[in-house]
Amino acid sequence: MRGLLLAILVATSASAEPLEPPAEAPEGVDYTVEPADTLDGGDVELGMAATGRAGSPPTRSRRVRFNGDGMSGALREGSGDPLAGGAVEGRSARGAITVGRLAPRWGRGLVLGAAGDPWQREPLDRGARAAYRGRAGDGVLLRPGRGERFEALYGRFGRQPLAGARLRHGGVALGGITDGRGRGQTSLALARGTGVTELAWDRRGRWRAEGVLDRSLERPAAAPIDTVADTPAAGPRDGWMAGLRVRAGRGGFMSLAETGRAGPAQALAAALSGPVPGWRASLLGALWRFRPGVTGARASLAIDRPLAHHGSLALGVEEQRGARRDPGSSGPLAASGARPASLRQGAWGEWWSGDGPVALGLRHESWGERPWMRDGVRSVTSARIEARGPAGFQLAMTHSLYRVKRGESLYLPEAESDRLVLRALSGEGERTRIEARAPLGGGRMRAGLRLASTTESRARAQWTLDWTRRARIRKTSEPPPR
Amino acid sequence: MIPPGFPRRAREGSALRKRMARCVPRAVVASILGVACLAIVTGAARAQDFASPAPAWPPRPATAMLERGLPAADPGAAIEGVTTRWHGLAELTTRTAAGALGWRALRIAAGLSQTGEPDVGWTALALAAGAAGPAGGGALRAAARRDRTTPFGFDARGADVGVEVGGGAWVEATPRLHVWASAPQLWTRGAAPPLARPLELGAALDLGGVMAWLGRSGVAGAPGGGRAEHALGLATSAGPLDLWLAARDQPLRGGGGLAVRARALRVAAEVESHPVLGETARMALAIGGAP
Fold first, then answer.
1. Is the omega angle on the peptide bond into residue B59 within 30 degrees of 0, that is, cis?
2. Residues in Cβ contact with B249 at an 8 Å cutoff, skipping those fewer than 6 apart
3. Which among A26, A197, A202, B247 is least buried, having the fewest CB atoms inside 10 angstroms?
């Protein structure tokens, strides 16, 4: 649960807000993402895993991560592993070069790095500061010199080769990408204080612009004049913060590098968060329009309260209207997530008892298609128990009970040792995960058993074994990378 | 006999129904099956072989561990005998004997239960093991059931056997707030259990002399689309007497219980009414455990 809660905390501004896969992920399919944790300098981590189920042979995977002087990287190998592949980064006084999996982000991501969904401040898996490592493409990213004033890249993004370069000076950045076949897009970004604005256009005159501004309401922000950050600092967390995002442009503009995450052409979102006695509250309102007739809106209120021993209590309500995705000009508007006037009202609550020999976590989430959450379409109730034994032994058990109406999507986050999996659920059923962790062979062994049953089928079992060892290869004075 | 659209588990039925169909008149089968089905449809209290007359909190040393996977906070030994008459039907009487032992943080319990008449009932054997302390506890429980063909019922060759494994845990959220979760049927094999046991979440608040609790339970495949059942209760003590009242929804119903303690001896009785099915009555005699 701590891993799950951490993932949720990192991934969303509201601590227990339901997680959703990005727009390009097919609906109703599990989505796997890798947390962007980093190793200390001089560390290397090895991992081996095997998983299987009754009636089918086990599948194996291996991974290695390292962070030494001047070089770091992560490689994964395994049949059917959605995270297979990797990236290696070399650093020196003359610059840095990254080879392999790339997920760079320029400005607001209109050209490179995915424009976030209107209800999200940033995409969760794009850019150097993202909570998760994404895969926008595979190739080479070069950053010569210091200060990241210039960068160039070449690789395959969305099944097409792309080349691009960007030059930055102070808070201004100008870049462009091309596919070498006459299509190109240009980005002009301005970062100032806690605000970032980007204007992007292509050779056919289509354009899109987005600006974001975050401001503390407690006292005037001491904004630095020159900054090179694409993502402005979030500001003090212990005061009231307001954020505003505005997007405008023509409907035909679509990033060459992120064709699956074009997002709506026009959007307006406002967020407000701050402390109320004993709690922290977050308010969000967003409106957007993909094209005429395909619009959407979302409003949410979430509150969370830290409890003793790292426990927490979080509650939230949300209303969604309209389309979350654009099915395209030929796509059916009745497809899931694209209903022109669909209403969804939901509420969730999550409680975690905190650290202790026995810890308990409870969560309930319910959605309806009529006001006051009537006519339920999605519902999930979960309980997690964690027990700590002697010699570092840990036992955890999670049980979830869900009901999803046909045509709806519900994702249940399951934190594993090296990834977060959003399990796509449908119908009615139960899921049980039993995990045992213990030190073994200088590393840590994790054994898991997953039971999934529906009202139509009896429980199917899937097992997982995962061994991870982290070691220090030599001392280094280099600070850990971002 | 089983209405269309009935949940799969109930439609599959237990070995009890198959044997009943062979051994007893169809009218009796129809009435008992109808009551059993109705009990599930209308959300009768989802207690089973090892339920004892007690408030939802605190958990009884032996029966709560076997029934819900909730170990008692206090160590020590306890034995308990319970008899339950379900919905006023003599044919559906459950007799239970259970014992628990606690040493330091370790808790173990075992129990034996028989339900129904020799030709139409079943025998259940349950074991549970876990750990508990003042701040929290958890346990795993397993139960096996087998049809009865003789009065004692251990020699039923060829009878269907069903096994279920589950667990539960509780923690002290604050010194006066106790929270628990129980999932008694995480894994089942063999003959389907008589009732689909839900994931139950609950909390009890100590108001100083009065304990109030709130519970929520739901089960996949239940009629109404897995809608949850809620329970609300109050318990208080006056000297050696414990008194509690409880109410449940879907359908709305209630009940109450009384327990008398004298040193290590505890005698308890509980009645729960049902608007359709009639009353369920439980009586228990326990020795040991925390006062």
1. no
2. B43, B229, B230
3. A26
ipTM of model over 0.85: no
Which among B7, B181, B228 is the nearest to A385, CB-wise? B181
Nearest to B220 among A311, A387, A455 (CB): A455
Q: Which pLDDT band holds residue B197 (cuts at 50, 70, 90)?
A: confident
Enter the DSSP assignment of A20. Answer: -
Q: What is the least distance, in Å, from the CA of A456 to any CA of chain B?
A: 7
- Per-residue pLDDT at B19 exceeds 50: no
Mutate to test the interface with B, among A382, A397, A435, A450 (most CBs of B within 10 A): A397
Interface residue B177 vs chain A (CB under 8 A): no
Task: Look at phi and psi of residue B35 and say left if phi exceeds 0, alpha if psi is from -120 to 50, else beta.
Answer: alpha
Q: Are A4 and A413 in contact (CB under 8 A)?
A: yes
| A246 contacts chain B (CB < 8 A) | no
Nearest to B109 by CA among B145, B154, B64: B64
User: In what helix (H) or strand (E) does residue A95 lie, and over which residues does it extend?
Assistant: strand A95-102
Both tokens assigned to B118: 């020799």
| φ/ψ of residue A481, rounded to 5 | -70, 170
Per-residue pLDDT at A117: 85
- B7 shares contact with chain A (CB less than 8 Å): yes
How buried is residue B262: exposed, middle or buried, by Cβ count under 10 Å (0-12/13-18/19+)?
A: exposed
A334: left (phi over 0), alpha (psi -120 to 50) or beta: alpha
Strands A410-415 and B253-262: unpaired
- A436 versus A262: which is more confidently predicted? A436
Tokens standing for residue A299: 């409003």
* B60 neighbors B73 (Cβ within 8 angstroms): no
Instruction: Report the distance separating Cα B212 and Cα B170, nearest Å.
Output: 16
Q: What is the pLDDT of residues B55-114, one digit of tens each?
A: 999 999 999 999 999 999 999 899 999 999 999 988 889 999 999 999 999 999 999 999
pLDDT digits (tens, 9 = 90+) for A351-393: 999 888 889 999 999 999 999 988 889 999 999 999 988 889 9
Please list every residue in chain B whose beta carbon sits closer than 8 Å to the beta carbon of residue A364. Answer: 201, 216
pLDDT tens track for B40-57: 433 444 568 999 999 999
Identify which of A383, A387, A455 has the shortest CB distance to residue B221.
Answer: A455
Q: Does A351 touch chain B (CB under 8 A)?
A: yes
Domain B8-288 has CATH 3.50.50.60: no
Q: What is the pLDDT of residue B47?
A: 65
- Nearest neighbour of A381 by CB, restricted to B170, B171, B201: B201
3-state secondary structure (DSSP) of residue A232: coil
Block residue for tokens 């030994």: B77
At residue A322, φ and ψ (nearest 5 deg) are 80, -155
The counts of H helices and E strands in chain A are 1, 28
CA-nearest of B35, B29, B37 to B4 is: B37
Task: Give the number of residues written for chain A.
Answer: 482
* Rg of the Cα atoms in chain B: 18
Considering A212-221, A344-353, A412-421, B111-120, the range whose residues carry the highest mean pLDDT is: A344-353
Specify the pTM. 0.83
Residue-wise pLDDT for A150-176, tens only, equals: 999 999 998 899 999 999 998 999 999
A203's tokens: 């050779």
Specify burial of residue B208 (Cβ count, 10 A radius: 0-12, 13-18, 19+): exposed
Over residues A292-316, the mean pLDDT reads: 92
